[in-house]
Amino acid sequence: MEGNKIHKFAKKLWPIDRSITGPGQKKTLSLIKEINKNLKIKKFKSGTKVFDWKIPLEWRIKDAWIKNSKNEKIIDFKKNNLYVVNYSVKIDKKISLADLKKKLFYIKSRPDAIPYVTSYYKKSWGFCIEYNKMKNLKDEIYNVKIDSSFSKGHLNYGEILIPGKSKKEILFTTYICHPSMANNELSGPSLLTFISKWLKKRKNNYTYRILFLSETIGSIAYISENLQRLKSNVIAGFVVSCVGDDRGYSYLPSKNGNSLADRIALKILKKNNIKYKKYSWLDRGSDERQFCAPGINLPVCSVMRSKYGEYPEYHSSDDNLANVVTPKGLNQSFLLYKSIIKEIEKNEFPKSYYSCEPQLGKRDLYPTTSFHNSFSKHQKLIKDFLSYCDGNLYLHEIAKKCKSSLTEIKKINQLLKKKKLVF
Amino acid sequence: MEGNKIHKFAKKLWPIDRSITGPGQKKTLSLIKEINKNLKIKKFKSGTKVFDWKIPLEWRIKDAWIKNSKNEKIIDFKKNNLYVVNYSVKIDKKISLADLKKKLFYIKSRPDAIPYVTSYYKKSWGFCIEYNKMKNLKDEIYNVKIDSSFSKGHLNYGEILIPGKSKKEILFTTYICHPSMANNELSGPSLLTFISKWLKKRKNNYTYRILFLSETIGSIAYISENLQRLKSNVIAGFVVSCVGDDRGYSYLPSKNGNSLADRIALKILKKNNIKYKKYSWLDRGSDERQFCAPGINLPVCSVMRSKYGEYPEYHSSDDNLANVVTPKGLNQSFLLYKSIIKEIEKNEFPKSYYSCEPQLGKRDLYPTTSFHNSFSKHQKLIKDFLSYCDGNLYLHEIAKKCKSSLTEIKKINQLLKKKKLVF
Amino acid sequence: MEGNKIHKFAKKLWPIDRSITGPGQKKTLSLIKEINKNLKIKKFKSGTKVFDWKIPLEWRIKDAWIKNSKNEKIIDFKKNNLYVVNYSVKIDKKISLADLKKKLFYIKSRPDAIPYVTSYYKKSWGFCIEYNKMKNLKDEIYNVKIDSSFSKGHLNYGEILIPGKSKKEILFTTYICHPSMANNELSGPSLLTFISKWLKKRKNNYTYRILFLSETIGSIAYISENLQRLKSNVIAGFVVSCVGDDRGYSYLPSKNGNSLADRIALKILKKNNIKYKKYSWLDRGSDERQFCAPGINLPVCSVMRSKYGEYPEYHSSDDNLANVVTPKGLNQSFLLYKSIIKEIEKNEFPKSYYSCEPQLGKRDLYPTTSFHNSFSKHQKLIKDFLSYCDGNLYLHEIAKKCKSSLTEIKKINQLLKKKKLVF
Fold first, then answer.
1. Which residue of C has its CA nearest to A82?
2. Are A287 and A173 in contact (CB under 8 A)?
3. Which CATH number is A58-151 given?
4. What is the pTM of this model?
5. Is the ipTM of this complex over 0.90?
6. Mutating which of B356, B359, B371, B388 best tests the C interface, going by the most C Cβ atoms within 10 A?
7. Nearest CA to CA, how far is A366 from chain B (Å)?
8. Which residues of chain C fall short of a pLDDT of 70?
9. In sequence order, which residues have a C-beta less than 8 Å from that of residue A336 and are 6 or more positions away?
10. Cβ of A293 and C362 within 8 Å?
11. Residues 343..402 of B with a Cβ closer than 8 Å to A: which?
12. pLDDT average, residue stretch B302-323
């Protein structure tokens, strides 16, 4: 079961101290490259202007802890990288409990979980702590230390390009900027790594581009450099995030709501009899925010398992590889995305190779002797089908026009593909 | 009555041994040329690739018969060219009744009719026979002979071009490949021959192109050579077939269903209070299959009498000039197509010659003295009408917008044409 | 109250002998220029061809009267310039009552009013007279005199351009060709004079162009010279006529019916709880006839008080500044048009300055620390709003998409404008 391999790979990525820049990102990408050598590791320089944003300085963190008056480490970054607010500035001082509490983040409703907190663009520092631990802190003087640094460096990203017969691209994007969290981070890149491995072994009709980006800033940077090509080549795209648990399915539409990506996603969910929660564009939260933004408007939607923000372990240490992300969940998602790709590869928008009607008789698709209505209903349907193969109608739309069933039309589509009459 | 002349001309064309190539086609075209010298006889060479097809070898047939053991001709091609499967290969042999029956085509439900059968693209032979004759055949040895040959030659077609003020073209197409059948063959070319004669005597706004083609292969060949021009110039087209009986009317839409040709056809049918059967694109069967095919999509529909495949005599010797096609039927169709042309020539999509309102007063269309509401309702309507003459609205659509009747709007259109305000 | 000033200015314009050309027009424009020096007085030469029309000769009139046999002036142009048919040719002769009556215009239903009559394009002469006066005329010989002349000259028009941040233009047009009438003439130019004065003191987002034209011929001439620019720059326009009485409101749509101008007008009428009569394009009667004509089709509609042709005093001496046009009516219209302009200036069609999402944190619009759902509903709404700022959706349409209220969305629009995120 591929799910086991993906889960194992996610475990390998788990301990890495990821952020939107820095060595954790590079390390993550190099591990992905071990699985798929096609990955190219690329970068944007700190300070580069990308639309309204600037690539931030690289953040590096060596250590961080809180010690109590007995010099005991009550918080230790080395035990869990979520303990420190991501992008915290250097700090090393003694501090009262009252002052310390102002710098602590915790989740009362999940008293044993460490929350995930970031402060990328405002210089700040803080710790994330289990609520149960926090409420038992004594009123004493604490020693807090964060050994972090900022330097000019790079935002890295990974890109896998798998060329197909057509230059038209299918885009898959995921993010590699969250530290040790499972569903809302590792499930995406782990799944896409194995999807890419599977894809490259296939002969594909379409070109596939798989992007491993820092969420938001990475996507914005990528779009700012590639907008022209994205606009002309991408016919469908998917933001792949939160694809590792086995509790349910979610669909979040593109802004347009009826793009090719949406129609593909909905068709596959229906085809596989998958019950899913249909979210609206207003529920969006990942990189579809950028890919569908004003001025961009690409055909990009998102098919997920439990959606970010909607499951209890989200953005906390509880979002782990033991209880949330499972081999079963990853395997189901792997199958689902394979199913999506296979469907795309089936060419759901059949286009006739020939102008005018093709010659069916010589391909055993029509009687060679014309005698009254000697053609069968099926043969008639083949002709009707072909008459609609303009490349802009979906199989189910053609079925409706032909007053036929989707099953029948799909059979004909397969048959005519085999006969090299449509692609 | 023009119907008599057309019927007489159809009779002249009747005995010719037509097929999709060969001397019968040339003979047919030369007789049409006698009526309208504007006809140009053109050709495609055998073996020429046209889209997915190849122009076939020329088929010639000298004789064909079946003799019984008493040497009596029980089937004689010279008596009716439908007796032989069109494009049959040469044969000359003795054959048992059992084997003969495998090569016989007949229609049980029309026991005295010879069916029409072809096998253009697969080498084969066969005979068509009356059911009553077939069932009385004795169990003896028969002598079958078909004296046919294949050779490199041409597929011929005829083209009549009648230039008008505008380069925009109205296309009429029909076929000249069926042997002795009346409604589903001769009615089309006979009618269009006389339509073309009538058209060339007129001064026309639009350019008319009339094509006499072999069905399917002829149209495909023509389109493959003329697609660019067809796409840019043809604003409406009609496949003219089955226009000779007097039993009813049929309309078969273009694939688009709402092309200019469709709207013109429907308007004329309505205008003339003609009851007609409305078919769907799925019921198509003639050259609209090519003119509306993927990659072609021209504005071409079909207005017929009893539609091919829908009347009992179809594709048999019963489809004749005595019982099926009548002078009356041909005359009605002649009137109908004249009516269509006249309607086109009326410029149903009025376009103002001027930007802004034209000056109506100096043309006696509006009071020159402006005194309260001294203009009449009619004068007001003229202004309303003109305000909609963008060249993309049909008279009845303008009528609706003006809350007026089509009659009234037509009068105004005529008036303003005369006044050189719209065209 | 601005209405008083506008009314006073209208009084100043009242006695001028206006026509579609001539000194009255120049005089009118020079008085407008006294209020707003930005006005440029421009002209078209007599005889200039403009689309289907020709700029007419200039008409000048010194005096005109009818004297009875006792040499008493029973009609005196100097008392009211409506007494003479506008563009009357020179005449000086004795005439019987019977013949005189053929040249008299009167309104039986308004027995004490002088009608307004013109004959611009056909050489003619005539007098307009009160019905009560006419019916008491004795059967005697009258002396009629019109001291008018025609000469090569100009059609004048006024143009005020108030540039804004954007080159996109809002167009206001009115006419300056009717003699002493109040609602259906002076209300328009008087109002726009003061609107222009108010506009030029503002810093505007959009460019405003205000045109004082002879109705019909002036607009046609202007359009013929400026069509290219009008087509590319004008995003909304309004024909400002009949805006002086205080009896009700009217809205006459553009030909398209759903142009930006229409939507702005309807939004403001609704916003101000104004009850109005909605006319149709068929009820049009002023320069929207030209601005929305075939080949022109600009986004121009009309918001009026009592519409021309629909109030009893229309086109007569009863349409005066005492009983019809009131300071209150003018003031209400002034407020309404200010309201329309203010709404336009609010940029109802927000467009993001940035591709992709802008960085909200650095602008204090979003938490800089990302901790669970630490963003507020309001902050979420900001992001939703921004995602729809493609520049083609109206605030209320965005509100609907965001499932928010217009009030809320307007607040956000204002906020983001201030933050230079949308314009």
1. C371
2. yes
3. 3.50.30.90
4. 0.52
5. no
6. B356
7. 11
8. 373, 391-392
9. A249, A268, A272, A274, A303
10. no
11. none
12. 96
